[in-house]
Write a structure and sequence with these properties.
single chain; 345 residues; alpha/beta; TIM Barrel; eight-stranded mixed beta sheet; 22% strand
């Protein structure tokens, strides 16, 4: 059965190609665990999957075919083309909007981009992970920051939608290095970004470093704080973050050894943003207030964001109560994401 990833306006029919084309195994990588798939994807499976998905009640205009899991442009060229040949007719017949692939920055050149263009590929995501050359080296990435920049510019030159993927908490990385990576990605003006906190999975080099004490996973609390900051950075630059945190499913929970994994990771980060923004606004209003009595206020957010502003299990409301504010959180349809209004009761 296909894996269909849906948001309110967009869907991906995800076809996993685990480790295919990867010239080396990165310190953190076990795609077979992440995808739950071991066998090589066949063209027959592609056809069956897409036939099944095309009969689902999905918007053709907003549904992409996605080849994920490996380095798609680094696999055997005939094999790559055979998979694309099965997918292209579904685009030609208007059943899906296009094809999205993921690959390595050092596996992009003008020849392969020409092939991808001819088979109706519309979006290319690069696994950048970091723009710090030391971090890339120690995590066995096999490419450099320069490769990321060159590939991104070439992809945009050929008219593809550019997606960039980054990881936080990698071996030899720091909070400042992760923030600098986000700044570097913003300069490349991608259409989309994915942010993955580093998770230690079994049967990886990172697992060996963890067991030896050479690597220590960042805490969930610190990672939420960092990723909330990154999410705001991309939002302020009008770059869509289409994933934040490793998706649940596959065998991730079984292969998990250490790291800031949470099935609702994005919501935790967005709740952190709301708490920070609410506190900032309350301080601006009450900064000259000397009365220590409990203050009752109503906080308005976009009506679809109430649960995020409230926090998981009411965590944000409890935190604000310790600050001296009893809050009611209500919705207004005309407010932007992360925008808040405060009404004194």
């Amino acid at each position: 059965m296909p894996l269909i990833n849906c948001t309110m306006k967009h869907s991906n029919i995800s076809l996993f190609v685990p480790h295919a084309g990867c010239p080396n195994q990165c310190s953190f990588c076990n795609q077979k665990t992440i995808s739950g798939r071991v066998k090589e994807l066949t063209k027959e499976e592609v056809k069956r999957t897409l036939e099944f998905a095309s009969n689902s009640k999905l918007s053709a205009e907003n549904t992409e075919i996605a080849f994920f899991g490996g380095s798609f442009t680094a696999i055997n060229r005939d094999y790559m083309i055979s998979l694309l040949e099965e997918a292209k007719p579904f685009i030609d017949n208007g059943l899906f909007s296009g094809i999205r692939i993921s690959t390595r920055p050092d596996s992009i050149d003008e020849e392969v981009l020409g092939i991808l263009k001819s088979y109706k590929v519309t979006a290319i995501e690069l696994g950048a992970q970091s723009t710090n050359d030391e971090v890339l080296l120690y995590n066995r990435r096999g490419h450099t920051k320069a490769d990321i920049i060159n590939a991104s510019l070439l992809i945009k030159k050929y008219g593809f939608s550019l997606g960039l993927q980054m990881m936080t908490g990698l071996y030899k990385s720091t909070r400042n290095r992760d923030i600098e990576t986000a700044r570097d990605l913003i300069k490349l003006k991608p259409d989309t970004v994915r942010i993955y906190p580093t998770i230690v999975l079994e049967n990886t080099h990172l697992a060996e470093l963890l067991n030896s004490g050479e690597y220590k996973s960042p805490t969930l609390e610190n990672t939420i704080s960092l990723c909330a900051e990154l999410l705001e950075m991309f939002y302020e630059n009008k770059i869509k973050v289409i994933r934040l945190g490793l998706h649940s499913g596959g065998n991730v929970e079984e292969g998990f050894l250490s790291g800031p994994y949470h099935p609702a990771f994005r919501e935790l980060c967005e709740s952190e943003i709301y708490l920070k923004n609410i506190r900032k606004k309350l301080f601006e209003i009450y900064k000259n207030e000397t009365n220590s009595d409990l203050k009752n206020v109503t906080i308005y957010v976009n009506e679809k964001e109430i649960s995020k502003a409230t926090g998981q299990k009411g965590k944000n409301k409890e935190s604000l109560l310790t600050d001296g504010f009893s809050v009611a959180i209500k919705g207004k349809p005309d407010l932007d994401i992360y925008e808040i209004l405060i009404e004194e009761n």
